[in-house]
Specification:
The chain is an alpha+beta fold. The protein has two helices and four strands; from the N terminus they run βαβββα. The chain has a four-stranded mixed β-sheet with strand order 2-1-3-4, with helices on one face. It is elongated and about 40 Å long. The structure holds FE2/S2 (inorganic) cluster. The site of FE2/S2 (inorganic) cluster (FES) has 11 residues, from loops.
Length: 86
């Protein structure tokens, strides 16, 4: 099973950017729905800070490259790659 790591870190007491403030929770929800709909052998891991805060929301396939400033559109190729890997 593949793991899609989504930073859902929030920084409520600072003006520094965080992935949660940029919509990463909704993105993680959407990914979980897509995984189910597409029947992919994958799971979403909601993560602490991944250390790329200025470029969030940050997502990565565990052990592989990051997707910065992630959107649904940017993550579709990742889902399609997982679909082909099944
Ligand atoms: S808050 Fe998401 S990478 Fe730091």
């Amino acid at each position: 099973m593949k793991t899609i790591v989504v930073c859902t870190n929030s920084r409520p007491f600072t003006s520094q950017p965080s992935c949660a403030h940029r919509g990463s929770e909704a993105l993680a929800d959407w990914l979980e729905g897509e995984i189910e709909t597409r029947g992919l052998d994958a799971t979403v891991d909601r993560s602490v800070c991944l250390g790329h805060c200025p470029y969030g929301p940050n997502v990565r396939l565990l052990g592989e490259d990051f997707y910065h400033e992630s959107t649904r559109e940017k993550l579709i190729p990742l889902l399609e790659a997982l679909d082909k890997a099944d």
